[in-house]
Amino acid sequence: MDNIIEMQAITKRFGPVIANREVNFSLRQGEVHALLGENGAGKTTLMRILYGLYHPDEGMIFVRQQAVRIHSPKDAIALGIGMVTQHFALVPTLSVAENVVLGFTGSFRLRYAEIEEQVAAAALRFGIDIDPSAIVGNLSVGQRQRVEILKALYRNAKVLILDEPTAVLTPQEVDALFETLRRLQKEGLSVVFITHKLDEVMAITDRVTVLRDGQVIETVETAHTSPSALARMMVGRETFGVSRRSSMEAGAPALQMVGLHALDDQNMPALKNINLTVRHGEILGIAGVGGNGQRELAETLSGVRPPTAGRILVGEHDVTGGSPADFTAAGVGRIPSDRHKGVVGELSVAENLTLERLMEFTKGMTLDRAAMLAYAEDLIAQFQIKARPTDPIRTLSGGNMQKVLLARVLARNPKVVIAPQPTRGLDIGATDYVREQLLAQRKRGAGVLLISEDLDEILALSDRIAVIYEGEIVGLLPAQEATAEQLGLMMAGAVKEEVNDV
Amino acid sequence: MSKAQFIIEKNENPSVGWRLLLPILSLLGTFILTSGLILWGKANPLEAYYYFLIAPLSSRFSLLEVLVSSTPLILTGVAVTFAFSAGYYNIGAEGQLYAGAIAAAGLGLIVGKLPMPLAVTVMLVGGFLAGMAWAWLPAWLKVKWAVDEVVTTLLLNSVMAYIVSALLNGPWRNPESGWPQSPEIAPSAHLPKLVAHSRLNLGFLIAVLAVIVLWFVLTRTPFGLKMRAVGLGKPAARFAGIDVERTMLISALVSGGIAGIAGVCEIAGIQYHLTDAISAGYGYTGIIIATLGALNAWGVGAAALFFGVIDTGAQTVSRSLGVPVYLGEVTQATMLLVTLAMFLLQHYRIRRRTSWTSS
Ligand SMILES: Nc1ncnc2c1ncn2[C@@H]1O[C@H](COP(=O)(O)OP(=O)(O)O)[C@@H](O)[C@H]1O
Ligand SMILES: [Mg+2]
Q1: A193 has which bridge partners?
Q2: pLDDT digit string (tens) for B150-183?
Q3: CA B298 to CA B214: how far, in whole Å?
Q4: What sign results for the dihedral spanned by CA atoms B130, B134, B137, B139?
Q5: Low-confidence ranges of chain A (pLDDT < 50)
Q6: Number of other residues whose CB lies within 10 A of the CB of residue B220
Q7: How many CB atoms lie within 10 A of CB A108?
Q8: How many helices, marked H, and strands, marked E, lie in chain A?
Q9: Ligand 1 closest atom vs CA A164
Q10: Which domains, from first to last, does chain B contain?
Q11: From CA A335, how far away is CA A325, in angstroms rounded?
Q12: Which residues in A lie closer than 8 A to residue B357 (C-beta atoms)?
C-alpha cells in the first residue's frame, strides 16, 4: 500500500525538552492509524509539525512521495491535510455553516442560503449530523467537534488528524464518531487518531504507532496486537487501575437538590426539576451525554449559576441563591470542570491554593506570604504536585494543575465534593490519582457528586448512578445493578423514569 | 537545497539583557525616525536630543522641574494601574482628574480660615471623593449591567470638559480679568513647597506615597491579590468565591480618587486656580505609563519619571534651537509610539532557521 504521508527522523526540541526524537511515522492511503501514548509522549507535537503549526528541528516530511516543507496550516491544507485539535478553533458567535466556510469562500459576498446548503450537503455526504444554521456558541463539545471535522473535510482534506477526539465525547458520541471515521475511510481518507485509550485503538484502527517520551516504541498492525501488549509499550510497565472500594453504608444526606431548575447561558431551561440526594460516604455518579445540563448542574451546585426554582441543602443548611463563597463556607468543595477557568494562570501555585481562603493567610492588614508558602509546600508534598509554590500555575501540566485544584478543595475536608469531569484530558497516572482521591473522600465520609461523560469512570467509582438527559434526571440505580447498555439507553433518552430521591 | 529563513516566535520570558536594551533601542529608533524632521527644521538632531534628554537632568532647576512635571503623571499612572490590575479598563482618569481639580478650586475658596495642614487635608479628601464620584457611574454600570467601561469612562471625559468650560465661562469666570479661569484659592490651601524658589511641592511626595501604597496594596494585601486574580482571570476568581463585581467597583472608585488627587495637586500645588488646560492629557498619558510600567508600582513610577524628563525637555528644545514647537511634540509622540512598539516586541524574537530539506 502507498504511504500518503511519511515523516522521517523528526526531532523537535522545546528548550531542554525533546518532544520528538528521530520519529519515523508513516500513514498509508485509506488507513486509520492510531498514535498512542501517555500525556506528554509527543503525539500532539508530531502532528502539529505535520499540520505546519510547529517546525521540526530535524527530519523530513513526504506527502505522496514528494518531499515538502510545511510552513503553516495553510500549506498543510493545500496538501490535503486537516487537523482537529484538542482546543477547537471555532468562532462561537458564528453559525456552523459560517465557521465551516470561514476563510474558504470563493467570492467576497457571503450568500448565506447557498453556504448553508453546501454545508448541509457536505454533512450529509460524510454522514455528520449537524444543523448548519445553529450558532456554534450554543453547541455541545461533541457537536463542536463535528463542526471541526466538517470544516477539515470541506477544505478537501484527504488526511484527517484527530487529536484525542474522544476525550470530550460520551459513549454514544464516540460510536457516532467511529461510524463517521469508517465512512470516511471508505471514501478513501486516511486518518491519524491520537489517543491514550486502548479500547479505542482496538475498535477503530488498522495500525498503531506507540510513542513514549518522544520516541517511537513500535508500529504494529492492530490485528496482531493486544491491549495489554500496547499498554506495556505505552507505559513501559504493567498498568494498575483503581481498585474498587469496599462496600460502605451510606449515611445522612450531605447534599440535597429539591425541585431544582436552572437556565443555560441562552436563558433556555437547562435543569428541570432535579430531585437528588448525595449521602455522606457515597459517590453519586451523574452519567449523561455532554451538553445535557451537566455544566449547569455543576455551576448551580457551586453557587456560580443561580437556580430559577428549587432549593439546595448542604446538610441541614439551605444555601439556595448563595455565592460561591457561601457554598464553600457551607462545606461544599468544588472542583472546576474547566481547569483553565479554575485557576488564574499568571498567579503562583501558592496564590491559587489560598485564593479561596485569603482571610486565613492575613496578618493584620497584610498577606502572610510565609504562611502561604508553607501551606503550599505542605499540599504540594501531600498531593504529589510536581511544582514549586512560586511557579506561575500556567506552567504546570494538566495533571499537576488538576492536583492543585484537588488540593485546594480537599485540604479543607469538605462535606460535599462536586467533581465535574475530574479526569478529562488527564493521562493514566493522573487519572488514577484523581480517582483514588475521590474514593478517599468517600471513605472519609464526604458525599461525592461525580459528574462524568466517561461511562467507565462512572461505573468504576459510583455507588449509585443517576442519568441526566436534556436537563432531567431520567434514571437512578445502584451501581451493582447498572450495566453500560442500560445506562446508554437512558443517556440516549430511550428510557425515562420519574426520579424523586429526596 | 537549504534556504535560510527568518521566523518570528513568541518569547514569553524576555531575558534581562533584552529588557535593559529596550530603552536604548527605543531612543535610537526615535532618533532615527525624527532626525529627518529636525534637520528639516534646520537644527542639529544631536543637539536637539541633548536638550531633550540630557539637559533636563543637568541642572538643579530643570531636575526639580522634571519632578514637577512627573507629579501628575505618577498619580494618573498609579490611578490607571489600580483599575487595570483588577481588569477594569478606566480610560477616564482625565475626567476624574478634572473632577478633583474642580473640587480643589471650589474648596480652595472656602478653606481660607483653616490652618494650612487642615485646609490641605480638606482639599485632598475633597478631590479624592470628587474623582471617586465621577468614576462611580461607569463603574456601577459595569458591575450592574456589564456596560463596557472603556466607552463610558471615555465619554465622560468629554462631558467633564463641558462642565469645566461651563464653570469657567459661568460662575467662575474671573471677575477682574474676565478670563475663563476660576478665582485664586486661599494661600492656606496651597500645597507647601518642598524646595524654596522652585515649583516643587508636597504633591510630589503625595505621588511617591501613592506609588508605595499601590505597591503595598497590590503585593502585600489580600485585597490586592483578589484584584490581580480578578484582573487575570475573572471566571477563576469568581469560582474561588471572590466577589468579582465588588472588587472591580472598589478598584474603579479608588482609581478615580487617585486621579482626583492628581487634579488637586495641579490646582493647589502649581496653578492655584482652575483653567481648562490644567491637564495636558495626563489622564491618557497615565494609561501609557501604566502599560509601560507593566502594572508594577515601581515600573509605573519609573515610566512616569521618564515621561517627566521628555516633557521638560520638550519645553526647552524648541526655545533653545528655534525649531517649531510642534517638533518637540512630534518627537515626544514618536518616542511614545516607538517605546510602545519595543515594549510589545520584547515578547517576540526573530530567529534564523535553516530549513530542513529541499524539494
Ligand atoms: N509549545 C511548547 N513549548 C514547550 N514545551 C512543549 C510545547 N509543546 C509541547 N511541549 C512539551 O513537549 C512534550 C510533548 O508534548 P505533547 O506533544 O503535547 O504530548 P502529547 O500530545 O503526547 O500529550 C511535553 O513534555 C510538553 O511539555
Ligand atoms: Mg496531546
Answers
A1: A34, A162
A2: 999 999 999 999 999 999 998 998 878 888 999 9
A3: 9
A4: negative
A5: 237-245
A6: 14
A7: 5
A8: 17, 22
A9: 21
A10: 49-341 (1.10.3470)
A11: 14
A12: 60, 67, 69
> For chain A, what is the radius of gyration of the CA atoms?
24
State pTM to two decimals.
0.70
Chain B residues lying within 8 Å of A304, measured CB to CB = 238-239
- Between vectors from CA B261 to CA B255 and to CA B262, what angle results, nearest 5°? 95
What Å distances lie between residue A158 and A28, A316, A339, B163, CA to CA? 11, 59, 34, 66
DSSP strands (E only) in A415-463: 416-420, 447-452
Q: Where are the domains of chain A?
A: 3-235, 242-331+414-502, 343-412
Strand A283-287 relative to strand A447-452: parallel, antiparallel, unpaired?
parallel
| Residue A382 CA from chain centroid, whole number | 25
Please say whether the beta carbons of A180 and A103 come within 8 A.
no
Q: Rounded to the nearest 10 degrees, what angle do helices B222-232 and B60-85 cross at? A: 70
- pLDDT of B354 higher than 60: no
CA distance B180 to B163: 13
Nearest to B227 by CA among B248, B212, B207: B248
Q: C-alpha cell of A14?
A: 522545546
Residues of A with CB under 8 A from a CB of B: 55-60, 66-69, 302-304, 323-325, 327-328, 334, 336, 338, 341-347, 351-352, 355-356, 358-359, 361-362, 365-367
Q: Which three cell numbers stand for residue A204?
A: 477503530
- Phi, psi dihedral angles at A220 (to 5 degrees): -130, 160
Q: Running DSSP on this structure, what letter comes out for residue B270? A: I
Work out whether strand A159-163 and strand A190-195 pair parallel, antiparallel, or are unpaired: parallel
Tens-digit pLDDT profile for residues B7-60: 666 665 556 676 667 767 777 888 888 888 888 878 888 888 888 888 889 999
C-alpha cell at B352: 534564523
Q: What are the φ and ψ backbone dihedral angles of A382, each rounded to 5 degrees?
A: -65, -40
User: In this structure, which topology does domain A3-235 adopt according to CATH?
Assistant: Rossmann fold (3.40.50)
Q: Do B222 and A367 touch (CB under 8 A)?
A: yes
Q: Choose from A355, A361, A362 for mutation: most chain B CBs within 10 A.
A: A355
What's the grid cell of residue B82? 489600580
Residue A434 grid cell: 484523581
pLDDT of residue A196: 75
Quote the cell numbers at residue A450. Answer: 461525580
Residue of A273, A255, A261 whose CA lies nearest to A307? A261
Gap between the Cα atoms of A384 and A51, Å rounded: 35
Task: Tell me which architecture the domain covering A242-331+414-502 has in CATH.
Answer: 3-Layer(aba) Sandwich (3.40)
Residue B65, CA distances (Å) to B48, B94, B263 in order: 19, 22, 18
Give the Cβ contact number of residue A265 at 10 Å. Answer: 12
DSSP E strands in A247-370: the ranges are: 253-263, 269-279, 283-287, 309-314, 317-318, 332-334, 362-363, 366-367
Within 13 Å and on the Cβ side, how many CA atoms surround A471? 15
Amino acid at B15: S
Decide if B256 contacts B90 (C-beta within 8 A). Answer: yes
Model confidence pLDDT, tens digit, residues A14-34? 877 789 999 999 999 999 999
